[in-house]
Design brief:
3 strands, three-stranded antiparallel β-sheet, globular, 15 helices, mainly alpha
Length: 387
């Protein structure tokens, strides 16, 4: 009986929209609570107030939600105008980092624009803009019936240029996410699996080369399987080791909200890259599983909305957004659990970061708009309003 009820629930397209909104809202709310908890010690130490960091995150939430609501109502024609400019806008935003005095370096990565009161990360917006740009080109190809067009030759050069610009700032984590978005878009576009395999293998070789030629990256890669090794623990193994300690000490229900010990200087990025560890320590297995379920629900709803999209551009863009959130979540949680080397990417909607939050919620606004343009969804919403 329960499975049939679930099947009926999932069979209704309007429920995919509700799943998207509820999971995104819940993750954002959990993010605010955990950013406050994880950042309070650092905020007191650097700015004299425990709430200074979370207040900035709350401001970004207050800006992002109305903006996402507005974007969900935009017509496809207006999205196409933005999509045509996606590559140019991405190059322009990343080019600002090259202006002396404007680009800001954090932990060795020059990936932020210093605006005095806030820092903006152009690469976060480039993710969404590049998805729109590639989706527009792939949709044009599909509508024209040009099935023999080399899709990698169509969108690959643009993505490679953006990845090169991001790598110029030494941000391998964001470059990896952009590469994964490209791979996802190539896959859903129907590229030959043999060619896809060769491209993936080439990408893996480039990644290996970037790791091997950087001492800092090579250290991170070598220690992730055993960060507690005596020769590595106090160096490259410090963050992954204390991330695991935090997760392990949480138990089933955690040590209590605000009770994390690892955030007291042991995890330098407790409110950003390692917020999942703080969740595990303070809220336990129940907390981490809740976040995983919400992320799975969000990703599932995005791909279900993508499958129902009638317009090719919408279908490709929603799939690209789903790949973006999936891969970035996997990289962040993999780093926190030492399944992967530390790559320095945030957990979507949960970690602190204004640029990441605004870009992600804008992308989800696009997906919500795609669902709202579905005739079956509109019919159900109108019916509920009349009832």
């Amino acid at each position: 009986m329960a499975s049939k009820t679930q099947e009926r629930f999932l069979a209704k397209p309007v429920n995919h929209l509700y799943m998207l909104l509820v999971s995104a809202g819940a993750l954002t709310f959990i993010g605010l609570i955990m950013v406050f908890s994880a950042s309070s010690i650092r905020a007191i130490d650097t700015q004299g107030s425990a709430i200074s960091i979370v207040l900035r995150q709350l401001l970004f939430v207050a800006v992002s939600i109305p903006l996402a609501g507005y974007l969900s109502k935009l017509s496809l024609a207006k999205w196409e105008i933005l999509a045509r400019l996606g590559l140019v806008l991405s190059i322009s935003l990343l080019g600002l980092l090259l202006i002396p005095g404007l680009g800001k370096t954090v932990n060795g990565n020059t990936n932020w624009i210093n605006l005095k009161y806030i820092d903006v990360q152009p690469s976060e917006f480039a993710k969404f803009l590049m998805i729109l740009w590639a989706s527009y080109l792939l949709a044009r190809k599909e509508k024209a019936g040009r099935h023999n067009v080399n899709v990698f030759g169509l969108i690959g050069p643009g993505f490679l240029l953006i990845m090169a610009m991001i790598m110029y700032g030494r941000d391998l984590g964001t470059t990896s996410v952009i590469a994964a978005i490209l791979a996802g878009l190539l896959f859903v576009s129907g590229i030959q699996l043999r060619l896809f395999g060769w491209i993936t293998a080439a990408g893996a070789l480039v990644l290996a080369g970037l790791i091997a030629t950087s001492g800092y990256r090579a250290q991170r890669f070598l220690v992730f399987l055993d960060p507690f090794a005596p020769e590595d623990y106090k160096y490259a193994g410090w963050q992954p080791a204390h991330s695991l300690l935090g997760l392990a000490s949480g138990g089933l229900f955690g040590v209590g909200l605000g009770g994390s010990r690892q955030k007291w200087g042991n995890l330098a990025e407790a409110h950003t890259d390692f917020i999942f560890s703080v969740i595990g320590e303070e809220l336990g297995l129940v907390g981490t599983l809740s976040v995983l379920i919400l992320l799975a629900t969000l990703i599932y709803s995005i791909f279900r909305i993508a499958l129902r999209a009638q317009e090719p551009m919408v279908r490709y863009a929603c799939a690209g957004i789903g790949c973006w959130i999936t891969v970035q979540s996997f990289l962040n949680i993999g780093s926190a659990t030492s399944v992967l080397p530390v790559v320095g990417v945030t957990l979507p909607l949960v970690s602190y970061g204004g640029s990441a939050l605004v870009a992600t919620l804008c992308a989800l606004g696009f997906v919500a708009g795609a669902a709202l343009r579905d005739p079956a969804v509109r019919k159900e919403i109108v019916k509920k309003r009349k009832a």
